[in-house]
Recover the amino acids of this structure.
């Protein structure tokens, strides 16, 4: 079955359209079109002529390209910081483990069983990284809000920070590609900005 005809529970599909560059004035900034569609319940379309759903929404926003590029760079730096925190956390936890062979082998089993899900584990942020995340997410909020001027900076992080959620945000602001976001807390926050 076609992916276009089916959607899992709660997913956002993001696409970018970069219009051909017409002669632009030095006074106007280049903008790109963010196209989004999301569903709040599973969707299966078998006949497009008779399909109707109250759980599918779509829209678009014009966003300055320079701000997208700047934000993506900041999100990339944030992702690197989160990766370092995860690596440091993993190093500290393995350093504090007991040296007994049985405990080590149990620890290795636990670590290896967690590795496939490493990127979806909630990351405990240090103060510097938390402030960095708040600044990035405040900028995301300002770019996606219907009335950006009314967008106040965030005082707390509105979703669970995982490596996957930060990587999804970084992918979301890559105008050369689209992305699909399915992480529930990130999904809920993003759609709240579209309203």
């Amino acid at each position: 079955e076609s992916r276009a005809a089916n959607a899992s529970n709660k997913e956002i599909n993001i696409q970018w359209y970069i219009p051909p560059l017409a002669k632009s004035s030095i006074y106007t900034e280049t903008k790109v079109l963010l196209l989004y569609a999301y569903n709040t319940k599973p969707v299966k379309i078998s006949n497009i002529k008779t399909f109707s759903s109250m759980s599918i929404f779509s829209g678009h926003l014009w966003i300055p390209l320079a701000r997208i590029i700047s934000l993506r760079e900041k999100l990339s730096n944030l992702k690197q910081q989160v990766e370092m925190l995860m690596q440091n956390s993993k190093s500290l936890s393995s350093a504090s483990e007991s040296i007994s062979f049985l405990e080590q082998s149990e620890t290795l089993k636990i670590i290896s069983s967690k590795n496939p899900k490493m990127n979806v584990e909630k990351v405990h942020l240090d103060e510097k990284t938390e402030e960095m995340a708040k600044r990035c997410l405040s900028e995301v909020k300002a770019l996606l809000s219907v009335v950006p001027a009314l967008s106040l900076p965030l005082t707390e992080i509105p979703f669970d920070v995982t490596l996957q959620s930060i990587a999804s945000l970084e992918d979301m602001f890559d105008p050369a590609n689209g992305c699909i976001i399915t992480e529930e807390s990130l999904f809920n926050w993003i759609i709240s900005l579209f309203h």
User: Anything to note?
Assistant: The chain has five helices and six strands. The first strand starts at residue 6 and ends at 7. The two ends are 32 Å apart (CA to CA).
